[in-house]
Write a structure and sequence with these properties.
There is one protein chain. By secondary structure, the protein is α+β, with helices and mostly antiparallel strands. The chain has a domain at 31-39 and 50-94 and 125-283 and 413-455. 31% of the residues lie in helices and 17% in strands. The chain contains 19 helices and 21 strands. It has helices spanning 56-67, 72-86, 136-140, 151-162, 167-180, 186-200, 203-209, 225-237, 240-243, 246-256, 275-280, 307-318, 328-349, 360-363, 366-373, 503-516, 522-527, 543-546, 549-555, and strands spanning 31-33, 43-53, 96-103, 108-114, 128-129, 132-133, 182-183, 220-222, 284-286, 289-293, 296-300, 412-420, 425-433, 484-488, 491-497, 531-532, 539-541, 561-563, 571-575, 581-584, 594-600. A hairpin with a 5-residue loop joins strand 19 and strand 20 (581-584). Helix 1 (56-67) packs antiparallel against helix 5 (167-180) and helix 2 runs parallel beside helix 5.
Amino acid sequence: MTHVRRLSVLAVTAVLAGSLASVPASARPAAAPSTEPPPKSPVAVGSGGAVSSVDADASAAGIEVLKKGGNAVDAAVATAAALGVTEPYSAGVGGGGYFVYYNAKKHSVQTIDGRETAPLTADKNLFLENGKPIPFSEAVTSGLGVGTPGTPATWDTALHKWGNRSLGQVLAPATRIARDGFTVDETFRKQTADNADRFRDFPATAKLFLPGGQPPAVGTTLRNRDLAATYDELSKKGVDALYRGRLGEDITRTVEQPPVRPGATRKVRPGDLTAADLDAYETKVQAPTKTKYRGLDVYGMAPSSSGGTSVAEALNILENYDVAKLSEKQYLHRYIEASRIAFADRGRWVGDPAAEKVPTKELTSQKFADSRACLIKGDAVLKSPLAPGDPRHPKPCANGGKAAPTTYEGENTTHLTVADKWGNVVAYTLTIEQTGGSGITVPGRGFLLNNELTDFSFTPAAPGVPDPNLPGPAKRPRSSISPTVVLDHGKPVLAVGSPGGATIITTVLQTLLGHLDRGLPLVDAIAAPRASQRNAAQTELEPALYDSKLRKELEALGHSFKENPEIGAATGVQRLKDGRWLAAAEKVRRGGGSAMVVHPHGHANGS
């Protein structure tokens, strides 16, 4: 998960002066001295709408659209497009994501599944050669791992169904940032350096992100005029330019014939993405998952993501306890165990519902959660990997059958949360999978391609255990993305989400518990040190927990831990009782997030 923070040369209040002229795709990115970005705030309170993301430029783009009369959907697309410029290793035209929308007029929640899909020619052997899985590192940097991009289609679907601005209008701030540049910070420089070896093997990627052959220096300005031209083309021609036009031809040619540097020794396999795959791609507008928690309605993303079902199941399990009154040790113990159980069940049951029978309703039922909750003991720890239950036929405390460990998911993702003056809310998580995705930039287009198909299981996760996440034709790989909206009698309470691969589920869950049960202000619930258990032998802890006395107290119960320097990078918005919005982001992780409101007034604590 890449989190790049810096400010473009234009402020949030800049006024557009007509449509942008197309920028030559052949223009080289420049690295020139720039001013230091201003400080970012992890919390903002006010009226008129709110935007929270990991990046100041992106949040400012969303605020600009809100100020011009756009709604939450318009601002969400504008923010996402800006993240495609300033967070190019996290998200962009070459990726996909999941979009959750609360409609204030109808008091209803709808979602868009904009996940990438496998080629129509794919089967369960996609990542096998001679009957054995290819090395994961080789799948990551290949055309083989590239799925059909869903992000442009998601933007188009959201704007047509719920927005009140055109694609060109909401892409304008991001186009301007791409053309004029953003300031490189240490995070961007380091993540570029970490990828420099593979970036050098792709001339278009090296030209864009390694000016002069090296990672751009902190404080310099990075321009992406190729992406500005791509956004301009999408603005004028619509997303058909990608799914049925020349932009799509450039993508499929890049996947089928990865443009590798002459003399490179890296083995880069071609993919089989074709014009037919792009033409066949469709987003899915579908109902969210829903569960009750402490009298509130919690809405999430239904499969192909496992986020909504897993968060719901864990919350339903924890409904059995008065979490607010538990000691810190007992709270963390039960939260860890509920997460372990939810991951055991998602590994067995969740995949793409277009290809697999996914018992979504049963997984999110209180009846099933109660049958699993009784496995949790106050003075002992469940063994991992834990065997799944059967949500179709729940049996109290059932603990049999074969277990499957959680498969790897890339952590390169970004999340944004938006609200508007009418009360509409969007929680949107988008991704290109690994940091830098496939590492392959489409020549002349200014964006990296995803490697999302590596989220599939290359082989069954465990021998003899059914695996709903094997590749298949036009199939969506399972995700853990968990954009979440919480309502109270049809009115918004908060919305939240996070990047982080499989840790997204536990980050969102822990943030909800911290705020709703433990009484933390939203910004503090986001900042609180995290633990992540994903049906593994060890639970990951951030340093503040790993170095605390709580670790030893939990180890005395039987828990085993390993340290993870940083887990997730959440953002959220909250509707205050007086009608104002509070936007919240990270205080420290990834250099801190950027929370903004249209009309600031009031203190950061919401008073």
